[in-house]
Structures are given as C-alpha cells and as structure tokens.
Amino acid sequence: MTLQQTTERAAAEPRTPGRDPAPLLPDRRPARVLGTPAADAVDPALLRELHRHLVVGRRFNEQATALTRQGRLAVYPSSRGQEACQVAAALALRPRDWLFPTYRDTLAVVARGVDPVETLTLLRGDWHTGYDPVEHRVAPLCTPLATHLPHAVGLAHAARLSGDDLVALALTGDGGTSEGDFHEALTFAGVTRAPVVFLVQNNGYAISVPLAKQTAAPTLAHKGVGYGVPGVQVDGNDVVAVHGVLSAAVERARSGGGPTLVEALTYRLDAHTNADDAARYRSDDEVERWRAEDPVTRLETHLRAAGLLDEETGRQALAAAETMAADLRRRVAEEPAVDPMELFAHVYATPTAQLGEQRARLAAELRAEAGSR
Amino acid sequence: MTSRGTTMAEALNTALRHALRDDPAVHVMGEDVGTLGGVFRITDGLAAEFGDARCADTPLAESGILGTAVGMAMYGLRPVVEMQFDAFAYPAFEQLVSHVAKMRNRTRGRLPLPLTIRVPYGGGIGGVEHHSDSSEGYYLHTPGLHVVTPATVGDAYGLLRRAIASDDPVVFLEPKRRYWTKEDWSPDGPAAPVPPIGRAVLRRPGTDAVLITYGPSLPVCLEAADAAREEGLDVGVLDLRSLVPFDDETVCAAVRATGRAVVVHEASGFGGAGAEIAARVGERCFHHLEAPVRRVTGLDVPYPAPLLERHHLPGVDRVLDAVRDLQWPSATRARHGGEPYAVGA
Q1: Quick count: other Cβ atoms within 10 Å of Cβ A92?
Q2: How many CB atoms lie within 10 A of CB B193?
Q3: Could you tell me which InterPro entries the record lists for this protein (chain A) (predicted)?
Q4: Is the peptide bond preceding residue B245 cis, with omega within 30 degrees of 0?
Q5: Which of A71, A160, B1, B260 fits a 20 to 30 Å CA distance from A353?
Q6: B 303-342 residues with CB below 8 A of A?
C-alpha cells in the first residue's frame, strides 16, 4: 500500500466530535488509586518499577539542583514533587511513541532512557538539545511555553495518515494552558482526531502566579470540552493513578479513539528554578502541606502496607539512585567539549556563502587567539 | 503580455500539482485550500485530485497550522503551508522564529524541517487594511530560513518546486499583484529551466546603472529602465529571486560593471532588505561605485488605505528620480537638461 493510499484511507474515516459535552467532562473528583481498594489489584512488578523510577528520579532532581550550586549547570528547573507525573509519562509510552517535553520535564526524558548528561545539555549550556530526538523519539526540551503542543499534534497526525500506530504524549503546565498554542493544538487535535495525549502538570503556579490568577476555568481538564477533547483529572502525586490514566489515554489514542487532555494535580516542592525565590509568593505552611503528599512517600507507604517493599528492594532502588547520581556528578564535572566551528554546521542543509565567510573569519580569530596564548 | 499564455497563479498551481504527484510526502495545508482552492485559487483542484488529506483545509489558526506542519515535518512529511495573506501570517511568527528556523540547529542537524510556507505578499491590489504587507524583512532577519520570491511565471513554477524539494524551511513570498499576469510559458516547454534557490538573474543588461529588485517591483524596474533608455541611460535590472541565500556574487558583478545601483522594493525602507543590500554593496564594491547606492522603497508608514497606496508604492517616477540622482558626470547631466533631479526619498 502506498503512502498516498493510506493517507486517503485515513482521511476518509468519519469524524465524530460528539455533540453531547457530558462524556467530555472530567469527573468531579480526580482519579486516584493509592489509598483505595483499587491499589491492591495493581501488578506488583509495575509498582516496583514505578518505585525504582521514583527513587532514582528524586535523586536526579536533588543532584541536578546541587550541580547548579556548584556552577556545573547554568540553571535547573526542578520537578521535585512532580516525579509521579514525570515517571508515569515516560512509562506510559511504547518505544515507538514520541514524548514532547518542556524544560521542566528532564526527568521524564531520563526515565524514557535518554542519557542524563545528554538530557541536561540545554541546562549545562554546551548546546541546545544534547540528545538525538529521532533515536529516542523525544522532541527537544521546549522553552517557549506550549509551542511544542502543535508539533505533537502534527507528528501524531502525520503518523496516522501514514498508517503508523504511534502516539504522541505532550507535556505542559498550568500556565501553558493560557497560551494560544495550547488552544490551537487542542483545536487541531480535536478536528484531526490525532493520536495525541496532553498531560498538564498543574503544580499550582506559573513561576509566581497562582492558578486563581491564571484561569477562571472550573478545572484545566474542562478546557478540552470546547475542542471536543475529553478531559480527565488525576491525582498527580499518585504515580499509579497517573500511570493508569495516561496508559488508558495513550491506548485510546492508538486505537483511533482520538486525543485526551489529562490534568494532573501536583506541586513543585522546589522553586521555579535555582534562580527563583519561592518564599516571595507562597507560604512554608503550604509547602509543608504538600510535603505530606510527597509522591515517593505515598507509594512507599502503600508498598510497605502491601508487603511489597522489603529491605532488599528498597536498598536496590537507593543503590541505583546513587549510581546514577555519582555518574552524573563525575561526568558533569568534566569540562564540556564545545567546538566554535559547529556554530555554522547546522544552520542550513548547505551553508550559505555568507556563513562561509563568517566561518572563515571565526576560524582566523581562533587561530589568532591560540597564537597569542 | 498576450491574452494567451500562463498566469503566475496557474504556474504555482501546476508546481503544487507536480510536487504532490511526484512525492507522496508532500502535503498542502492551510485555510480554504481544499474545497475552495484557496482565496487566490492557487490550490484549485488539488483536493479533488489528491484527496483532502494531501490538500487539507485547516482550522483558522495560523500558529496551529504552522505548528502542526512542524510536527508533520518532524515525522518525515513535506508540508507546504499556505498563509492566506501576508499580515495574517503574523500569528505563526513564533512558530516560524522559535521552531521552524531553529529546529535543525538546536538538534545538531537531527531534525531538519523540510517545509515550505507560501505567503501572498505585497500591495497594489486595492486591498483593505492588513492585506498588503511586505513582510520579507522579518523573515530574512531570521537565520535558518530561506526567503524566496519569484517575479516571473517561470520562476514561480521553478522556485516553488525547488522550495518544496529543499531540506531547509523556505518562506516563499508570492507577489500577489503578479498572480494574474500572463506570460508565454508552459511547464512542459523548453523555456522552463528550474533556477536554483539563491541565484539572482539579470533580467535586462545595462551599462550605466543597475536596478536591484525582486518580486512585485520587477515590472516597475523594467518599465523604469525603458524610460531611462529614452533619456539616454542604459540601465540594467537584476532580479534577486532569493533574499536568503543572498547572491552577493551576481549582485556585485552587476554593480562593478556599472558603478551605480538603485535598490527597489515595496517594503518600508528603514531597516529593510534595501538597507542590507546597500550595505553589502558598499562593503564589497566601494571602489567601483561612482555614487552611493540609492534605495527606492515604500514609505516608513503603516501600509496605507487603498486610495492612498499609489503614493506609498515605489513607482516608475521614483525609480527614475533615484537613477537621475546617481551623481552622473556633467556630460550625462547635460542630457537631462542641467542639474540632477534632487529627490528626498
């Protein structure tokens, strides 16, 4: 079957936006598994895998933040407190699926299997994207808010037109849902029924601006209704619930069911970045209340109660975390290799004559610099 | 121009048809490009021939259109996006600047974006507000984009084919007031060479001065060169065809051959393409210049209402005035009857 034939077949499938908004509305209470009877039915192997990723992920956040204090990273937007969302996002995908992360989603990228040092290249400053997006099927960490969401829609749409059953999962935050591109992405996803899932990590703040000043929407999950995209709210610190909701949305997309908007309620325990002072906009009491909802602790509490976290399992998870952290420290401590001539290497498929001239000039400057040393 | 022949709109339509026919990765998308065939009919019949997935009507959201096209290109398709009018492309500006132009670079060449963004541009069609902008300056100032604009029917076909086949993103600016001009041209004819992107062409040779122009101003310059001939000046006309990559070599050769140059474009002059061209010529051809490079451009005003646009657009008289002002030796001046014409533009 040619590409053209498959694209025509895909285009001929009926679109069913659904006139009745009720099925698109989020439930009144966010989905939750931990602390409910449903938790007992979850596969222990999955729970252990989620746990190991959470422990390693927490250590990754702490280590990366420490590296900013040592001047090894220019900046680190921490996802400490949001590890359940990060880990669940990565684990809900199959190898052929695509992940579209933001700058705060480095942990999701690492959990998907990308090398931590390559993931942190953007924040270390030696290039913008350090990993190979095509090899890992992870789009570049996106800094301009929500602008990567239409990319996820387009990639998913193109795959569907080509008869390819991959799914795109795009991450954003509560602030990102105010951006025009969020709405345009949902519009296009709804119309094309692209196999895409949007995960909004609602951590309560866009840097300093609280949700109440961000939106008057009933919930962020409700924002899907206007675009014919079902909205789901989930307890974002319940890693089992986030994984379950995302997995269902991903498989629904894969089987032709169209896009889903998932809002995960979570909290950023650290400041926006190491350069931010969160004390200017939120109280210690508030942070303490959320510490009690720590996603790592919550899963461990369940595992212990269920008899699934023996000493050896816990020790192995911690050992994996320490190995990752030690490797990260050691490799980030090495001076990153940068090549000034690479500035010209990837601007165009064929460099312009003007870039050729500028390249020669920079090469001469570098020679002069080397000669004067 | 004869009544027979092919219009630029038809040539563009043929280019899209052939691209869709030759490469299943090519996907045309935009507002009204499907059933309607585009407000300028550039995509006429394509949805019927190739299906509405290959020539797709999109929601009315330019950032979403271009952002979706970025994702499609990431997957491996070759989207050809239509922005309905120059000034309606601005909502897509962030996608263009932050992603389209940079994706290859930020991913070290791993995610090139082979996409073409067609933008009908320029004035002279009596359009109401926001339908007549010359927006090339925004695009050519953005590293990572190619900025191409045809001025002839044959180039419209050839350059669009090249743009779609390019592995770099191309902003393809279509001079909308040239859409309906006919030329004796056929895509199958022998006179249909496909020019490479980045090569300027001398449309008219001249020994005394050269007019450097592109897109909608080419006919104005050709007419001005004819008029100059009557005044005894042999003025050449250079059609840039591509602003990025910029053909310094051909431009400088034309300037060195004449020693005098005028840059003509519709866009406002301040900080525009003409400023860049004049600076480049000055840097490279200073010792060959007999006079400063002059610019004849649109005024530095927001695009005027239709009844006023003729005062804004560079016309033949303004071009001629600039030519007359190129510090001719007294013998040449005498041919004009004494003092050189003083222009304030």
Answers
A1: 24
A2: 9
A3: Alpha-ketoacid_DH_E1_comp, DH_E1, PdhA/BkdA, THDP-binding
A4: yes
A5: B260
A6: none
Chain A within 8 Å of B245 (Cβ-Cβ)? yes
A96 C-beta neighbours (distance < 10 Å), count: 11
What pLDDT is stored for residue B340 in this prediction?
A: 44
- All residues of chain B having their beta carbon less than 8 Å from the beta carbon of residue A11 are 51-53, 56
| Paired tokens of B79 | 């989207």
User: What residues of A are labeled active site?
Assistant: 268, 272, 281
Residues B51, B104: contact at Cβ < 8 Å? Answer: no
Would you say B149 and B136 are in contact if contact means Cβ atoms under 8 Å apart?
Answer: yes
Whether the pLDDT of residue A164 is over 50: the answer is yes
Gap between the Cα atoms of B105 and A368, Å rounded: 27
Helix (H) or strand (E) holding B119, with range, is: strand B116-121
Q: What are the residue ranges of CATH 3.40.50.970 in chain B?
A: 6-183
Q: What are phi and psi of A107, to 5 degrees?
A: -65, -40
Residue A45 C-alpha, separation from nearest chain B C-alpha, in angstroms: 34
Question: Best interface-test mutation with B: which of A1, A4, A122 has the largest number of B CBs within 10 A?
Answer: A4
**The token pair that represents A12 in the structure block:** 């001929």
Q: Do B67 and A184 touch (CB under 8 A)?
A: yes
Buried b (16+ CB within 10 A) or exposed e, A350-373: eebeebeeebeeeeeeeeeeeeee
Are residues A147 and B94, on separate chains, in Cβ contact within 8 Å?
A: yes
How far apart are the C-alpha atoms of B309 and B313, rounded to whole Å?
6
Mean pLDDT in residue range A103-130: 97
Q: Which CATH architecture has domain B201-334?
A: 3-Layer(aba) Sandwich (3.40)
Cα–Cα distance between A194 and B68 in angstroms, integer?
11
Whether B24 has its CB under 8 Å from any CB of chain A: the answer is yes
**In this predicted structure, what is the pLDDT of residue A218?**
97
φ, ψ of residue A300 to 5 degrees: the values are -65, -40
How do residues A275-322 score in pLDDT, each as one tens digit?
899 999 999 999 999 999 999 999 999 999 999 999 999 999 999 999
CATH 3.40.50.970 matches B6-183:
yes
C-alpha closest to that of B84 among B29, B20, B146: B29
Rounded Cα gap, residues B92 and B83, in angstroms: 9
Residues of CATH 3.40.50.920 domain(s) within chain B?
201-334
A193 interfacial to chain B (CB closer than 8 Å): no
Model ipTM? 0.94
Q: Where in the sequence numbering do the catalytic residues of B fall?
A: 131
pLDDT band at B188 (very low <50, low <70, confident <90, very high): confident
Amino acid code (one letter) for A195: P
Evaluate whether B262 touches B323 at the Cβ level (below 8 Å).
yes
